[in-house]
Amino acid sequence: MKHIKFLIFALTGAMFVSCDADEFLNPLPDSAIVADSFFQSDEDVLAGIIGIYDALQGVNENTESSSIRFNRGVQLEYLLTEHRSDNTRSKTLEGSRADFHRYIVEPDNVQSEDYYQSMYEIIFRANNVLNYIDNADASNTNKYSAEAKFLRAYAYFNLVRLYGGVPLVTRVVGSDEKELLFTRVEETTVYEQIVADLQEGVNHLDNSSKSRTSKAAAQGILAKVYLSQPTPNYTGARQLCEDIINSGDFALESNFKNVFYDELNDEIIFAVQFLFGNPEESQGFSSEFTSYSRQGRQDGLNIVNPNLAEDFIARGGNRTAVSYTAFGDDADLPVPEDAEVAKFLPEGYDISDTDLPTYGGGPSNAGNDWIILRYSDVLLMHVEAIMQGGDTADGNAIDSYMKVRVRAGFDAAADRPSVLTKDDLLLERRVELAFENHRFFDLKRLGKAHDVLGAHAALKGYTSYNIRRLLLPIPSREINLSDGLLIQNPQ
């Protein structure tokens, strides 16, 4: 994080250095000894809490270029989400990153493996801190516990949506507890733990931070969990969204561009922060979203699919120019074929010169924050909770829907629908939240994933797609380490 990561290197290096980099889940015996001696004070426990955020932030590929197990945190998440939706793709068909958009990810895919282990690194660090939470000042114990459990819940929420049932580990474990480390549990059991962890955040956090978790962040993610779990809790999700709405702590930015370039603005509920130009604090994904004037290590990632551009042209309003851009001959087409993401341009550099777009100095060390939850997402979840899986004429749902639409430049009266459908909601979420890693999860949650992605795969000629590909395979390395305990997803 921008203001706290150096604290981690100074105070917690000994805590994590002892953990085998190849075995995120399983701390070695000497790491437990180090932790015993480390977590002696409130300051020590706080440093451990910040270390969990550090794992979420991940390591910039521009700093450590190895593709294998470098704890990229959220920095590669778009491959597992946006690329597996109908939103985006890789520029080329080369390399393991191009496997995601073609639905041919195999158990040995290095990016999937890194993400899986990155989420478990968050879980391990949270469990380690919670083991010593009583060493914090009594006035901070509940808050620190709630923060650690929120981050653990967020990691498990990502894992269960991408991989299905996974091993559920909620305490520090020893090397002799292999069965606990590698036995998958039912999705419902994982969701029960996620709910319990997030409820602690709702009860014990406030809204004093946007770069650390907050009460509203816990409420918003819990609302999404309620909507996503096998048996949705629509009433609970609606109440949580209304609690955020009625708090008065958040508001839509009047200028859509400011959401992404005026960081920690009024619309942001929770964001992962990065710092431009500092290899230890920056992110590299912004530079990878370019292809016309290649700025990253790859040929271009998160390239916009034409069908998404069509939806923007029809329904994007003033969000369109902020969300994507096209260069060269592509800029002259009615619907661009290879448009690039514009929401995360490194430091917001002006690329209006379409003949020679530039992204400023050092785009691979970008400082753009990664937004996990913002207010417009909450408004649209409020709509979804009221709809309860069907159409609705409820005025409260339509009011929340129209707040997002009006900010996009649509007329509050002339463009107000009398009935909202699931397709209306999905389309609005698509153009509002494009490239923010929501589309794949939205389609799954609303029961449209197989229909939409099956049609998209057929159109694109992705013949490997089938409904089983909606879950990623468990990484083969984990299967091998488990000695047969960890069961693979059907492919």
Features:
491 residues, single chain, 6 strands, two-stranded antiparallel ribbon, 46% helix, mainly alpha, disordered N terminus, Serine Threonine Protein Phosphatase 5, Tetratricopeptide repeat, globular
Give me a quick take on this structure:
With 491 residues, the protein is mainly α. 46% of the residues lie in helices and 4% in strands. Among the domains are: 1-87 and 101-204 and 448-491, Serine Threonine Protein Phosphatase 5, Tetratricopeptide repeat; 284-366, no CATH class.
Q: Write down the overall mean pLDDT.
A: 90
Fraction of residues in helix: 40-55%
Q: Total strand count, please?
A: 6
Shape: globular
Structural class: mainly alpha
Instruction: Please state how the strands of the largest beta sheet are arranged side by side.
Output: 1-3
CATH top-level class of the domain at 1-87 and 101-204 and 448-491? Mainly Alpha
Count of DSSP helices? 22
This entry's quaternary arrangement is single chain
**CATH level 3 topology of the domain at 1-87 and 101-204 and 448-491:** Serine Threonine Protein Phosphatase 5, Tetratricopeptide repeat
What is the annotated CATH architecture of the domain at 1-87 and 101-204 and 448-491?
Alpha Horseshoe
Provide the low-confidence segments as ranges: 1-33
What does this structure look like?
The chain is mostly helical and 491 residues long. Among the domains are: 1-87 and 101-204 and 448-491, Serine Threonine Protein Phosphatase 5, Tetratricopeptide repeat (Alpha Horseshoe), CATH 1.25.40.890; 284-366, no CATH class. Helices cover 46% and strands 4% of the residues. The protein is built from 22 helices and 6 strands. The chain has helices at 5-11, 13-17, 29-38, 42-57, 77-80, 98-101, 110-130, 141-163, 178-182, 187-204, 215-228, 234-247, 258-261, 285-288, 306-315, 320-323, 375-387, 395-407, 422-432, 439-445, 449-460, 476-481; strands spanning 88-89, 268-272, 303-304, 324-325, 340-341, 370-374. The chain has a two-stranded antiparallel sheet. A two-stranded antiparallel sheet has the order 2-6. A two-stranded antiparallel ribbon has the order 4-5. Helix 10 (187-204) packs antiparallel against helix 11 (215-228) and helix 11 (215-228) runs parallel beside helix 17. The radius of gyration is 22 Å and the shape is globular. The two termini are 37 Å apart. Residues 1-33 have low confidence and may be disordered.
